[in-house]
Write a structure and sequence with these properties.
The structure is a single chain. With about 190 residues, this protein is of the alpha/beta class. The protein is about 35% helix and about 20% strand. Strands 1, 2, 3, 4, 5, 6 and 7 form a seven-stranded mixed beta sheet that branches.
Length: about 190
């Protein structure tokens, strides 16, 4: 098992609602590995009831994993970097929408602000991608971020190549070891599954 004892892990969740349960499991695995979780949620994740459940089903356990903390607004996310609240930040899942925002410097929500604030200290960001257009419209943003310093990726591949030929999804179970590698300044390999 990967040891993340004492690691202050910002854990940001975006609006890929079908992956909410997997994101929660990944957060639990990181806590079991010893990480101190700071949960961060996007406005859409925190505010939309979907066919995958009401937000509270996921927000309450995330908050509990973070010792009652839950960042859910831009003003609350902005101090992450200046106050040195995190050693590393993971976005689980990272949607195609967020890939585009990060690649183009758009900071219009809680999660992009958390990433921007965290990056100002030159600290690692781990992206656990899940997007139906990873090999289409989001491909150029993915390529851009693959070439930037401080970004690391949970190994990913096509999740349903016949039914969804442009869809990419990370192996959420590999988040703890990806975090550990990123803290050492290396990309976990192999990157492509």
């Amino acid at each position: 098992m990967t040891d993340l004892t004492g690691v202050r892990l910002g854990f940001a969740v975006c609006g890929s609602f079908c992956n909410a349960a997997r994101a929660l499991e990944a957060a639990q695995e990181c806590v079991r590995a010893g990480a101190e979780l700071l949960p961060i949620v996007s406005e859409s994740f925190a505010g939309m009831r979907t066919r995958f459940g009401a937000p509270e089903v996921f927000l309450e356990p995330l908050s509990a994993l973070g010792g009652g903390r839950l960042i859910r607004s831009v003003p609350d996310a902005e101090p992450i970097g200046p106050k040195n609240l995190t050693d590393i930040l993971a976005v689980v899942p990272c949607t195609g929408n967020l890939l585009g925002k990060l690649a183009n410097g758009i900071t219009d929500g809680t999660v992009p602000m958390a990433v921007k604030s965290h990056l100002r200290g030159g600290k690692p960001v781990v992206l656990c991608i899940s997007t139906n257009d990873g090999l289409a419209a989001s491909a150029r943003n993915l390529g851009d971020l693959l070439n930037r310093r401080h970004y690391y990726f949970v190994p990913f591949g096509q999740d349903a190549p016949v039914q969804k030929p442009t869809s990419l999804s990370a192996d959420f179970s590999r988040l703890p070891e990806t975090v550990a590698a990123a803290l050492e300044g290396r990309q976990l390999q192999p990157l492509l599954l």
